[in-house]
TrEMBL record:
<keyword id="KW-0575">Peroxidase</keyword>
<feature type="signal peptide">
    <location>
        <begin position="1"/>
        <end position="25"/>
    </location>
</feature>
<dbReference type="InterPro" id="IPR002016">
    <property type="entry name" value="Haem_peroxidase"/>
</dbReference>
<keyword id="KW-0732">Signal</keyword>
<keyword id="KW-0106">Calcium</keyword>
<keyword id="KW-0479">Metal-binding</keyword>
<keyword id="KW-0376">Hydrogen peroxide</keyword>
<comment type="similarity">
    <text>Belongs to the peroxidase family. Classical plant (class III) peroxidase subfamily.</text>
</comment>
<keyword id="KW-0408">Iron</keyword>
<comment type="function">
    <text>Removal of H(2)O(2), oxidation of toxic reductants, biosynthesis and degradation of lignin, suberization, auxin catabolism, response to environmental stresses such as wounding, pathogen attack and oxidative stress. These functions might be dependent on each isozyme/isoform in each plant tissue.</text>
</comment>
<keyword id="KW-1015">Disulfide bond</keyword>
<keyword id="KW-0964">Secreted</keyword>
<keyword id="KW-0349">Heme</keyword>
<dbReference type="InterPro" id="IPR010255">
    <property type="entry name" value="Haem_peroxidase_sf"/>
</dbReference>
<protein>
    <recommendedName>
        <fullName>Peroxidase</fullName>
        <ecNumber>1.11.1.7</ecNumber>
    </recommendedName>
</protein>
<dbReference type="InterPro" id="IPR000823">
    <property type="entry name" value="Peroxidase_pln"/>
</dbReference>
<dbReference type="InterPro" id="IPR033905">
    <property type="entry name" value="Secretory_peroxidase"/>
</dbReference>
Amino acid sequence: MGTFAATVALVMALSAVMTVCFAHAASKSPLQVGFYATSCPTAESLIHSATQAKWNVDRTITAGLLRISFHDCFVQGCDASNLIKSTPTNTAELDALPNLTLHGMDLIDTAKAAVEEACPGIVSCADIISLATRDAVVTAGGEYYAVPTGRRDSRVSLASSVNLPGPGFSVASAASAFQGRGLNITDMVTLLGAHTTGVAHCEFFYNRLYNFNGTGRSDPSMAPSLVESLKSVCPQASTGLGQTVALDQGTEFSFDNSYYKQLEKYRGILQIDQELTYDHKTSRIVKSFAGRGSRFGTSFGQAMVKMGNIGVLTGSQGEIRRICSQIN
């Protein structure tokens, strides 16, 4: 805790320098590092404490928060709209099919309760998502990155607006989806590195094991040893589709560059992951992130800051929700 607090203090003291470092992102967003330094100076420490406590008992929280962040920002912007529960008159994003397995909202609620007690009506749920996600990444071994804050929460959440790139997308289709959110091909490959932690359900790669492209055989791009290992978890019967396997077959709970190393060994679980090594626009990036002296950690932080600027609400827009799952 002391080390984290010291790091935060240093970042705030050097906020002018950080503004230059994130000039590209800041030029498109009024967010700023240390936004709550005066209005709620304990906010980041409280969120960190809640995240650390959760990670100590549930190391899947890193993947859970990353998924919440991605599913939030890619719909109508980073506004915590995917935390809102449905009502009798509205089906919210949370009940859209891709969001049914989101994990980690309990941590967001815990952190929100802590900052509400310290500073009522000041810290947004959207900022808590971004800060807690960063803290979980760092706790799992990733590099620290400063998170610009100042987001406000949306008052709108519609299940019909959820249209996310999925594991069955080709590299080209996924790149197009990312580009539509202002993210380039390097950002995409970097953010997919979040698969260095987390799991996938058998249903999302079942065809690669038993009937790849209708051939009745396994995907030849998948290492034979991995095919056999996955078949033991995902048997050739519909009853096994709900089972899960780690996306990173190396160090599943550590936030490192193992994901890219696994791709180079043909051990990518999802088809889109493995295809990154074959596409001429992405293979070089995978190779650089997998190699010695990889800058993946630094690049990931930069990509998260960039993604965190998508469609943000600021100023008098939206609101600061008192409870993250409910519109005020």
